[in-house]
Every structure is written in structure tokens, then in C-alpha cells.
Amino acid sequence: MDEASTSASGGAARRAFPPARSGVYYRFTQQNLPAWKPAMTPGCLIATFLIIGIIFVPFGLFCLQTSNHVAEISRRYDADCVPNAYRGNEQAYIKDSSISKNCTLEVKVLDHMRAPIYVYYELENFYQNHRRYVKSRSDKQLRFGEKYTAESCSPIQWDDNGFPIVPCGLIAWSLFNDTYDFTYGSKEIKVNRKNISWKSDREHKFGKNVFPSNFQNGSFIGGGKLDPTVPLSQQEDLIVWMRTSALPKFRKLYGVIEEDLRVDETMTILIRNSYNTYTFGGKKSIVLSTASWLGGKNDFLGYAYIVTGSMSIFMSILFALIHVKYPRPQGDPNCLSWNRKNSNN
């Protein structure tokens, strides 16, 4: 009886727990699962390239047309805003605080621009992706305060008196500080500076109870200053600047104009040209742009689809001509004759 019960329980156990080799995981690791592999015959290959081309070319033309409907005004001002007396010595001009940095530009609206109109500042030859520059920050300090001041912020870590700098690091220290005011005829245009940064950055990367301290107070001054009474989560210029760019030419959002600009009207821009790009040969521009469902004005996506689709159509035609001239054999004649002999036997 004991042996019978033992064998019965053992059989039940075996039935309840099948061997591992019968499981899906085993069949997956041993590549025994059912699969489908398409047979890439010449006809299938030609049809695939042709379908890709037929889809990509019209979509590329549509993207290009959408991009062309985006109205954009771009004006470089770093050279135009230097007084004539300092045209040969821009660094002396930008470093001398006694010289007025105000500059007035007039731009003509060539296309009707519907609100919202996004205002960007564009920098060129500024390598925010430099390894030492990118590492010179403390994310914990931005979130929780000065007690997390880290060695990674070097060389902008402590002020001249040995107190921690908040926010520390080269990225915050080089904060962009040019400002823009717009006049449209005799009317001042208001620029909305709120919600220009990512909501996730404001809520999760910059502390609501962390305030700037000892920032730009030393002998080595970088870019803009911060209001010490405003927490970092509300310093949106800083939040936008701290999201570093991957390329040496980039745009960052300055604000949003929430009214239309009519065509052939002249707009006056008052610029406070304070940011020093002359030391490293950089360029500064102001950009006003509308947006579409694809974003701002960018012809690259449309041209990329058109070129890829055109190449696919060309390849399908080329493969079709090759297939017509040199058709693929249906099989090895020797194997066919061997199969016929076996079938006869």
C-alpha cells in the first residue's frame, strides 16, 4: 500500500509539474517555436521597394509643404549691436559695464504670422555637449538644496568665501542673459515667459524649496543672475538653459507671443546685448516662428522621405530590369531529374 501510494503521489507530482523541456521557455531558447520567414523572391523584393517608394515620396512632399507654411523670422544681431567705435574690439565692449548694451533692430514681417508665435534665441559655435561642461552640475542639489553640492560642479562649486553656490556648475554659471522687448507700430507686444520649460523638469528636477544663493557673487562672473527670492522650480530661463544641446548650433525658447503679426508690418526689437559670445567666436540670433503639427520650420524630414522613396523606386526598377534580363532559375536541373527518377521508381 505504501509503495502504491508513493507511486501514485509521484505520478501526480509528475503530472502537475511537467519537465522543463516541454515548456515555452525551453522551446524559445532552443529556437523551436513556430516561426514564419518570408521567401524573398525577386517579385517580392521588387514589390517591397516599390511600395516603400510610393508611400514615402508623397508623404515627403506633404511634410515639405507643411514646413513651407511655417512663417519664420531670423535675425543675427551680435555683430550689428556692437557700436562702431568697438567694431574691432568686441570683447572690450561686452566686458565694459559702463557701456550701454541696448540695441534696436527693425524687422519686416514677410508672411502673416498667426499666434502662438514662438520666440527663440539661437547660439552658434557653443559646444554645450563638451564632456566637462555637461558634467559640471549637481542634479541632487537642484532638487534638494546646497547640502548636495558635489565635486562634479567644479570649477564653479564654492564662492570666494567658501560658501556653496546654488545652483553650482558651469552650465548654470553660463546662463544666457540677453533680453528682448517688442514694439509693433506704437503698441508694445507682450511676451509670455511662463510654461516655456518642460513640466516634468519643473516638478521633478528643480526643487520648490531650493533658492539661489551665492550665485554670480564671486570675482569670476559668467552669464545671467537669478532672483534669490524665487525657487529654482520657477526659474524657467534656468530650466530651459540647463537642458543642454547636442549640437553646437541650437535654439532655446525665450517666450511666446500670443497675438497675430500682419504681413508687411514693421516690428521693432529692443535687445539688451549682454551675453558674451565674442570671446569664443560665437554667433547670436533671434528667431520668431510659428508652428505646425510637425513643429517648427524644418525641411530635412521632407527631403529625407523624398530621397529615401526615390531611391526605393529606383532600386525596384533596377531589380525589375535585372530580373527580366537574367531571370532566376526555378531549380537545379540535376535535382529535378533525380526527383523524377525517384518518383518513377
Q: Tell me the helix content.
A: 25-40%
Q: Which range does the strand content fall in?
A: 15-25%
Low-confidence stretches: 1-14
Report the major sheet.
5 strands, antiparallel
Task: Please provide the ordered H/E string of secondary-structure elements.
Answer: HHHEHEEHHHEEEHHEEEHH
Number of continuous helical runs:
11
Mean pLDDT: 87
Number of β-strand runs: 9
Q: From the alpha-carbon coordinates, what is the Rg to the nearest angstrom?
A: 33 Å
Task: Please state the oligomeric state of the protein chains shown.
Answer: single chain
Spatially, the strands of the biggest sheet line up as 1-9-3-7-6
Content-based structural category: alpha+beta
CA(first)-CA(last) distance:
60 Å
Principal-axes geometry comes out as extended
Keywords: Membrane, Transmembrane, Transmembrane helix
Pfam family, one: CDC50
Main location: membrane
InterPro entries: CDC50/LEM3_fam
Outline the structure in words.
- It comes from Panicum hallii var. hallii.
- It is found in: Membrane.
- Belongs to the CDC50/LEM3 family.
- This is ALA-interacting subunit.
- This protein has 345 residues and is α+β, with helices and mostly antiparallel strands.
- Among the domains are: 63 residues; 177 residues, no CATH class.
- Helices cover 35% and strands 15% of the residues.
- It contains eleven helices and nine strands.
- The strands form two sheets. It has a five-stranded antiparallel β-sheet.
- Strand 4 and strand 5 form a beta hairpin.
- The radius of gyration is 33 Å and the shape is extended.
